Amino acid sequence: MSKRDYYEVLGVPRDASEADLKKAYRRVAMKHHPDRNPDNKESEDKFKEANEAFEVLSDAQKRARYDQYGHAGVNQQGGGGGTGTGDFGDIFGDIFGDIFGGQRGGGGRSNVRKGADLRYTLELDLEEAVRGTTSKIRIPTAVTCKTCEGSGAKKGSSPVDCGTCNGVGQVRMQQGFFSVQQTCPRCQGSGKQIKDPCGTCHGRGAVEEQKTLSVKVPPGVDNGDRIRLSGEGQAGSHGGPAGDLYVQVSVREHKLFERDGIDLHCEIPISFVDAALGGELEVPTLDGRVKLKIPPETQTGKLFRLRNKGVIPVRGGVTGDLLCRVVVETPVNLTKRQKEILAEFHDIAESEGKQSPKKSSWFDGVKKFVDELRA
Q1: What is the pLDDT of residue 79?
Q2: Same fold yes or no, 6-100 and 258-329
Q3: Span 206-229, mean pLDDT?
Q4: CA angle, 98 as apex, 161 and 45 as ends, to 5°?
Q5: CA 173 to chain centre
Q6: CA–CA gap between residue 14 and residue 118 (Å, rounded)
Q7: Least C-beta-crowded within 10 Å: which of 71, 160, 208, 257?
Q8: Is-contact 138 211, C-beta < 8 A?
C-alpha cells in the first residue's frame, strides 16, 4: 500500500513553517498515542505515520529531498524509517520539552544557580532617617572552606559520581506517555556525592563567617523602605552569581515627633494663661529650637505650621512641614492663694457671660435637646 503524503498526514500545507509543523504533530501525536488508545491498531498506525512524517519534515535536508523526489528521496537515505516507538522519545521530547523544561539527550540542565536574596533590618533614629547617614552592619556570609578547598570532601578524598543519575545531575521520569527530565533528588543536580565529608564544613564546601558592610542611607527614608546591595546576598552554587542583600529600614519611635509622610507632628503643652493672653514659646525642631508666637485666646488643639521643618523626600521634592498642636494644660498642685485668685476669676467670668463661647453654645444645645425630648 502506498504511503500517504507527509503534509497530508500532519494536516498542514506544503509551505508550513517549523512552528506549524510542531503544532500539528503535537495534535496528531497526542490524539493517536498508543497509551491513550490501547489495543487500537488504527491509532497505532496513525501515530507511527505522524512520527515518520514529522521526522522527515522537521529536518531541512530531508524535507528538501522529499519535496523534490517524494518518498523515494528520503527512503534511499534511510530517512523516514522511524516507524517504531523507539524513536519517539527524542522527537516527542523536543516537541513537549518546553512544557516540562526537559532537554533532549542525556545532558542535564546547567547546575549554575544564583544565590538567594537576603534581608537585613536596619534600625535608625528619626534624625538619621531624615538627614541620612552611613551605617556599618555585620551579616553572616558563606565563604569557601579552606580545609577542603570547597569540594566538601575530606582531605585526601574527592566527590564521586551520584549513583542515582550516574553523574548527569538529571533523572528521567515517566508520566503516562510523557517522559519528563527532572533534577536528581539525591545530588540536587550536582551529579556528585560526597562519601566522606569534610569535618570543617560537613560536606557543604563552605563555612559561615561574619562580614562588615557599609550602608549609605539617603535622606528621607521611612519605615519599610529598602536599600539594595547588589551581590551581597547568599553565594551562588556551581559558579552562579551571588544574590542581593536588601536592607529594610525600621525607624525607632521618637519622644517628641511623629512622622506622617514628609510632615512631622508634635504636641506643645501651654498654660491656660499663655493660651488666654498669648505669648512666645521656643519649640524644638530637628534643626534646633525656633520661636513660635501664640496669639491671645488660643484654644487647645490649635495647629501651627512651621514651613520646611519636616522631611526632605527621599526621591527629591518640596521639604515637608512641622505641625505643632497646642494642648492647654490644666495647672495642678495649686496653692491656697492661687485657688482664691481662680475662684475670683471664675465669678467675674460668670458675670460677664461672654468669655466662654463654646461652653455657652454647648449648654444651649444641651438645653434645646432636653426640651425637644420633653415636648
Answers
A1: 40
A2: no
A3: 90
A4: 100
A5: 32
A6: 55
A7: 208
A8: yes
CA dist 288 and 92 (Å) reads 75
For range 45-49, the mean pLDDT: 87
Confidence of residue 81 (pLDDT cuts 50, 70, 90): very low
pLDDT of residue 94: 47
User: Residue 47 carries which DSSP code?
Assistant: H
Neighbours of 163 (CB within 10 A): 11
| Nine cell digits for residue 372 | 425637644
Q: Determine contact, residues 152/198, Cβ cutoff 8 Å.
A: yes
Mean of the per-residue pLDDT values of the chain = 80
With cut-offs at 50, 70 and 90, classify the pLDDT of residue 90: very low
| Cell output for 289 | 529650637
Report whether 282 contacts 291 (CB < 8 A).
Answer: yes
Q: Which residue has the higher pLDDT, 255 or 202?
A: 255
CATH topology of domain 118-150+202-251: HSP40/DNAj peptide-binding domain (2.60.260)
User: In the CATH hierarchy, which fold is given to the domain comprising 6-100?
Assistant: Helix Hairpins (1.10.287)
Write down the architecture of domain 258-329 according to CATH.
Sandwich (2.60)
pLDDT of residue 364 exceeding 70? no
At residue 340, φ and ψ (nearest 5 deg) are: -65, -45
The residue ranges of every structural domain in the chain are: 6-100, 118-150+202-251, 258-329, 342-374
- Main-chain phi, psi angles of 288, to 5 degrees: 120, -175
Give the three-class secondary structure for 207: strand
Return left, alpha or beta for 282; rule: phi > 0 is left, psi -120 to 50 is alpha, else beta. beta
- The alpha-helical segments, DSSP class H, found in the chain are 6-10, 18-32, 41-57, 60-69, 71-75, 88-100, 126-131, 272-277, 336-352, 357-374
- CA atoms 127, 132, 135, 140: torsion sign: positive
Summarize pLDDT for 225-277 with one digit per residue, the tens: 999 999 888 776 655 678 899 999 999 999 999 999 999 999 999 998 899 89
C-alpha grid cell, residue 307: 514651613
Of residues 130, 36, 50, the one with CA closest to residue 92: 50
pLDDT beyond 50 at 96:
no
